[in-house]
Amino acid sequence: MSLEYADSIIMNSNENNTNINNKGEERPIPSSSDILQKESTDLSHSSRGVETIETVRNEINHFIHGISSPDTTTHLSPLESILQILKKYSKFIGPGLMVSVSYMDPGNYSTAVAAGAAHKYKLLFSILVSNFMAAFWQALCAKLGAVTGLDLAQNCRKHFPHGVNITLYILAEIAIIATDLAEVVGTAISLNIIFGIPLAIGVILTVVDVLIVLLAYKPNGSLKIVRLFEAFVSLLVVLTVICFAIELFYADLGSTKKVFNGFLPSKAVFEGDGLYLSLAILGATVMPHSLFLGSGVVQPRLRDYDIKKGYYMPDLNDIENNHDNYKPSFEAINETLHYTVAELLISLFTVALFVNCAILIVAGATLYGTTQDAQEADLFSIYNLLSTTLSKGAGLIFVLALLFSGQSAGIVCTLSGQMVSEGFLNWSVSPTIRRSITRAVAITPCLILVLVAGRSGLSGALNASQVLLSLLLPFVSAPLIYFTCNKKIMRVQINPNNTHNNNRYDVSYEPLKQDIGSEEYLEMHDMNTSNHSESKQS
């Protein structure tokens, strides 16, 4: 509904209204308070005046503020309301599962196996704390990507000096390489165990990850293509979960009480190598590249919403420039952000937490207190022990889970590397060349490691890479906190066609009143804790 339609309602009620322009001439848009006051006066003697005023109030509020008032004429049963919410939520399934892949890669396998073999279930507490931290960071990432329309790397390039930007890029690339080392080596180990392929050749075969991303993931294309890509990654995630559910069924876990006691704080975290392994678990769980990924996978649904509603109509230049100038509308953010964050948190606290805990529990149940080799457990040894102590099927299922997670994690790591290089540097070469170079840089140290150290050095290198990631995390998370607390950055346009800076909602942590007109103010609460905006008149 437009304001002209609101005027027509008032005109029908009082044809002698001298405040209505009957000549079709353009006139300034009045404030909502003026319109509603006029309607209240003109319709006061109408039998349906109250109902009409309420209808106009709702639609004017939606037109001006982008907020729909509750429909008082429609009453849904609790079951219908739940089904409606679930149906809407299902449209947002995908990004959270892709991000959760970052928290269940081969690096997690290596650290969880070592932690379970050395301390049994006592370091489950470290996994739980790491997942809470991951949920906090990812919620901020989703908020940053939705409000600004840019991922974390693009925001760094836009708001930081060149020297700071390059420094952050170098640290981010180191994190990508350390992450890729785990992905590539984990996949190579699984191929070696299942098919007998030499480790070096297995590393080279992981280039397939790049081809999948190049061919399948088109973030600036149709949303259907994006969802198909997300569905493929989600399938690998589901297969991984199924494998570990079967592993838990095979393993003799002992006392259930001891398992749950592992989620409570324990002094084992500070004994021996407990702190080192806890840092490795933290680095394997809250991985720096996941912050770039989490802030970069939310835009396609926002952009699709704005295109369907007519708020954003990209041209060829926008598509070629990866929609760098796209700014999500308030309506798109209000419609999608809360469902996106909910899907993300559910994925982290179900899929990622379950897989990480299952790895440690299986390792603790089968490796703890057995032999000296178990204290130096790696991915090869846990396969051998599972095959001998449980069954060959249990060992095979573990390796299949390693293969599925390695492939899915390799795909999203390649995608993160693409976001890092494109966001920080804005390279002008074609995406194919750019992504191939990024992947080649990441694979080279992995190949050298395999050729020089062989199997004996893989476990130590994997654990060390996860510790390195935990040390790099503050340098990546600091810009994220800075951006999400900055009022100048975390603002949303009230009207998508109005680019004036004073006509924006503030969605940073602290509420801020923004001057919209001569007498009207709007206040936006933190979108992490409130679903609604409030309007006030001074």
UniProtKB/TrEMBL annotation:
GO terms for molecular function: cadmium ion transmembrane transporter activity; manganese ion transmembrane transporter activity. One of its GO terms (biological process) is iron ion transmembrane transport. Residues 14-50 are annotated as: Disordered. The chain crosses the membrane at residues 166-189, 195-217, 229-251, 275-298, 344-368, 393-415, 436-454, 466-485. It is found in: Membrane. It is a multi-pass membrane protein. Keywords: Membrane, Transmembrane, Transmembrane helix. GO terms for cellular component: plasma membrane. Coiled coil: none annotated. InterPro entries: NRAMP_fam (IPR001046). Its main location: membrane. This is Uncharacterized protein.
